[in-house]
TrEMBL record:
Purpose: Member of the two-component regulatory system BvgS/BvgA. Phosphorylates BvgA via a four-step phosphorelay in response to environmental signals.
Organism: Duganella margarita
Name of the protein described by the UniProt record: Virulence sensor protein BvgS
Sites bearing 4-aspartylphosphate, chain numbering: D694
Subcellular location: Membrane
Record keywords, A-Z: ATP-binding, Kinase, Membrane, Nucleotide-binding, Phosphoprotein, Signal, Transferase, Transmembrane, Transmembrane helix, Two-component regulatory system, Virulence
Recorded GO MF terms: ATP binding; phosphorelay sensor kinase activity
Enzyme class: transferase
Main location: membrane
Residue intervals of the Response regulatory domain: 645-761
Length: 854
């Protein structure tokens, strides 16, 4: 019902609807106000009637007092008639106390006052009663009656008048509003409706609606409609052009378009659809049936099933199928369609596109054949690679075994070389030059240890496990160490070594081991390949905000490097051609390049045949406070009450002797055994406090011995420190897992040994630091300085230098007087730098003239 009312309301004119609605609102407002004022007036008229009644009762009570006192009936009736002159008063009654017969006057139907026998009985009458007082005595009562009939009639007439006025006003308002709305709104809207209908019908679409009737919002609406029509016209043109382009594009892309009216089963094909089905130039009455007959028999069922699902709304029609043309050829077709439905969801129309994918399917089949063939080849190659991988893994395990054995076999004697050279350095009976030579032996042993570590480091680099370990390094001392370690080879070949450093900070935080190794590799190569001439280590520093850019360059006067060799010298085990090409392993430049890259730089070379070579790189370091003064900690022997028993188990006699030489001077009781079996027996019998257990030993190795010690609950468990000459970090975890308390690598460093002893035995050694004195290089030695020496002394010095008898040189210089101390210091500095050829040349140039000694 509500729907029918809404539909009927939709057919009502907007002018009528607005007029009636507005009139209803105005009527409601006016009625409200009219009723309000009517009620106010009604209340006032009633109040006025009651007031008139009361006043009349008062006046009559006062007027009839004297006649009632005198019992003057005529006078009483006259006064009563006079008091009822107001037509709103209906009757009056005087009841004297002394009489039982009241005086009553009422109005008859002609509104005349006549005597009556009874009081009025109409309940609608109003009454007021007053006492009659004379001489201070109550002599009777008077009652006055008023009739509201005339008032009611007047109020009813007033109400009818108001209703009539409101009705007239409503009719006038409806007519006025309707005419106004018709002229200003309804008529323009009607014109717009007719214009829109003509545009919809395609008639006079370019004609604009009349403009005389439009103002305000209708003017805006009129302008909007004109703009909409213009836009629709332009879009129609664009759509037409787009359809033409779509037709061209579909023809170019070989896309056929079809439209199927499902209700009447009629299908329409465009020209391209006929081409796709091999029917170019033909027209079919029933293209749908022709299409069904051309579908490949194997594809009929899935195609029709998907089509039915698309009509039911459970799937989209997107399928690939095969067509068999009239000539028997098979074509692959791709179809995609959209379904249009009515309000009830029933399929009414389907529009779709078809395109030929035969070429791509043929290409896919060809690719599939190639892929199968390729997979066969890959499987064949994979099998071959699996064999190669297994071989490579076996070779890698063999390499690891070889490196472990090589590390152990080489580090074991190095442990004795480095350890005993360190012990000999503490001797009080050695000459300074002998101590210096011993220090060179010690550093050379350390360098040999570094070379062994380099081979292991190369395997770390290949595995990507190399990391930086920075420390505070005194740069000038490091450069001097590098020169000292290559100076002997330089003296033998007559090569001059030069350090050219400018702008270096005193100390810097850098991986000193790797930087030293890089410089040593480069300097060794330069000396090795330079038959004669000079090798310069050039360093430049540029500090800024706590950072310093260090630029290193090693420059030699050697034969140079060809362009082809420059491309391959950084590869492992590759060496350039030259006089020293057969020396070394060919790993130095490879490791150096990796170390420089790890420090954030790039190692490069600049060279040409016959012009020497320059290897250079730049690294950024952090400027640090001055490095600690070089020197050693002297450890005092323990007090007798602090003595401990220490067992050393090592199959290498030199290694055991070294540990005994290091431990006994500290006040320990030391026992040395040669294998794990003896170690187990000594632990059981001797009960040592600490055991230094070598990893590799005959009969029973250190790991097995440690496990057996830890598994025996009946013995006092000693501390166990595992010693090994291997350099693989994985062995530390294995040793600790077996029960060892500490892990140390050979060669044993004294500082590390002291720290281990303190931790394991809960001791505290008394140390005294013995700092080395860093001396500044003296001023260069000149010919005039040597002329102050005796000619015979100069000749003896020359012979001693040529024989490399440094002890003889020291003995010849020792007796010289203090006045020649500066000359002795300069000669000693050149000897320290191994500048023997330069010193011999200065001795030859000094002549025979001797300057007098003051």
């Amino acid at each position: 019902m509500l729907v029918r009312l809404a539909r009927r309301a939709a057919k009502v004119s907007i002018a009528v609807f607005v007029s009636v609605t507005l009139t209803a609102v105005v009527t409601l407002v006016l009625t409200t106000f009219a009723l309000y004022f009517y009620q106010v007036e009604r209340a006032q008229r009633w109040e006025q009637l009651r007031k008139t009644l009361a006043n009349s009762a008062d006046e009559l009570a006062a007027a009839v007092a004297l006649p009632a006192w005198n019992f003057d009936e005529t006078q009483i009736v006259t006064i009563m008639k006079s008091g009822l002159s107001n037509r709103d008063l209906y009757a009056s009654a005087v009841a004297p106390v002394a009489s039982s017969h009241p005086f009553i006057l009422t109005r008859n139907e002609q509104a005349q006052l006549v005597p009556a026998e009874r009081l009025p009985a109409d309940p609608d009458l109003l009454s007021e009663q007053r006492p009659i007082v004379a001489g201070g005595q109550n002599i009777g009562t008077i009652t006055v009656y008023a009739s509201p009939a005339q008032l009611v009639v007047q109020l009813r007439q007033r109400l009818y008048t108001i209703a009539g006025l409101i009705f007239v006003l409503d009719v006038t308002l409806v007519l006025s509003l309707y005419l106004l709305l018709w002229q200003l709104i309804l008529k323009p809207l009607t014109n717009i409706e007719r214009y829109a209908a003509s545009v919809k019908a395609g008639q006079n679409s370019g004609v604009e609606p009349p403009r005389n009737w439009y103002s305000g919002e209708l003017k805006t609406l009129n302008a909007s409609i004109r703009e909409m029509v213009r836009l629709m016209e332009s879009r129609y043109v664009a759509m037409h052009a787009s359809e033409e382009r779509l037709q061209i594009a579909s023809s170019a892309a070989a896309i056929g378009i079809w439209d199927w009216n499902i209700a009447n089963r009629q299908m329409v094909w465009d020209e391209q659809m006929y081409r796709l089905h091999g029917m170019e130039g033909r027209k079919l009455d029933d293209p749908f049936e022709a299409w069904r007959k051309m579908v490949h028999p194997d594809d009929v069922m899935p195609t029709e099933m998907l089509l039915q699902q698309a009509l039911n709304g459970t799937a989209e029609f997107d399928i690939e199928y095969r067509l068999i043309w009239a000539d028997g050829t098979v074509h692959y077709m791709k179809a995609d369609a959209m379904t249009f439905r009515d309000t009830d969801g029933h399929a009414m129309r389907m529009v779709g596109v078809n395109y030929d994918v035969t070429d791509s399917r043929m290409a896919e089949q060809e690719l599939r054949r190639h892929r199968i063939h390729l997979e066969e080849l890959v499987a064949e190659r994979t099998n071959a690679l699996s064999v190669a991988v297994r071989q490579a893994q076996a070779a890698n395990r063999a390499k690891s075994t070889f490196l472990a054995n090589m590390s152990h076999e080489l580090r074991t004697p190095l442990n004795s070389v480095i350890g005993f050279s360190r012990l000999m350095a503490d001797s009080k009976n050695m000459l300074p030059e002998e101590k210096r030579n011993l220090a060179i032996i010690h550093r050379s042993g350390q360098h040999l240890l570094t070379l062994i570590n380099d081979i292991l480091e190369l395997s770390k680099i290949e595995a990507g496990r190399a990391v930086l370990q920075t420390e505070v390094v005194h740069l000038n001392d490091m450069l001097q160490e590098v020169l000292d370690m290559v100076s002997m080879r330089a003296v033998q070949t007559g090569v001059e070594l030069v350090v050219d450093s400018v702008g270096l900070p005193v100390s810097a935080r850098v991986d000193g081991t790797k930087l030293r190794q890089v410089l040593l590799n480069l300097m060794s190569n330069a000396v090795k390949f330079t038959a004669q001439g000079k090798v310069t280590l050039k360093v430049r520093g540029a500090s800024h905000n706590g950072q310093c850019e260090l630029a290193f360059a090693v420059i030699d006067d050697g034969p140079g490097i060809s362009a082809d060799d420059q491309l391959r010298i950084f590869e492992p085990f590759i060496q350039a051609d030259g006089p020293g090409a057969k020396e070394g392993t060919g790993l130095g430049l490879t490791i150096s390049r990796e170390f420089v890259q790890l420090m954030g730089g790039t190692l490069a070379v600049q060279s040409a045949p016959g012009q020497g070579a320059t290897f250079y790189f730049t690294v950024s370091v952090q400027v640090a406070d001055d490095a600690p003064q070089p020197g050693e900690d002297e450890v005092a022997a323990l007090e007798p009450q602090q003595r401990r028993r220490i067992l050393v188990a090592d199959d290498n006699a030199d290694g055991g002797a070294l540990m005994e030489s290091l431990l006994k001077p500290l006040g320990f009781d030391v026992a040395v055994v040669g294998d794990g079996v003896q170690a187990l027996a000594m632990v059981d019998v001797w009960q040592p406090d600490l055991v230094f257990m070598d990893w590799r030993m005959p009969a029973l190795d250190g790991i097995s011995a440690t496990r057996q010690i830890r598994a025996n609950p009946e013995i006092v468990q000693p501390g166990i420190v595992m010693l090994t000459a291997s350099a693989f970090a994985e062995q530390r975890e294995e040793a600790l897992a077996a029960g060892a308390d500490e892990f140390m690598r050979k060669p044993v460093e004294q500082a590390q040994l002291y720290a281990v002893l303190e931790r394991q035995l809960n001791l505290q050694f008394v140390r005294r630091h013995r700092a080395a004195v860093r001396r500044l290089p003296p001023t260069p030695l000149e010919r005039g300085d040597l002329q102050r020496l005796d000619a015979a002394l100069r000749e003896e010095l020359k012979v001693a230098l040529q024989e490399l008898n440094l002890a003889r040189v020291a003995a010849l210089l020792a007796p010289l007087p203090p006045a020649l101390a500066d000359v002795v210091a300069r000669i000693g500095y050149m000897v320290q730098l191994h500048q023997y050829p330069q010193l011999c040349a200065l001795l030859d140039d000094a002549g025979t003239e001797l300057e007098p000694i003051a």
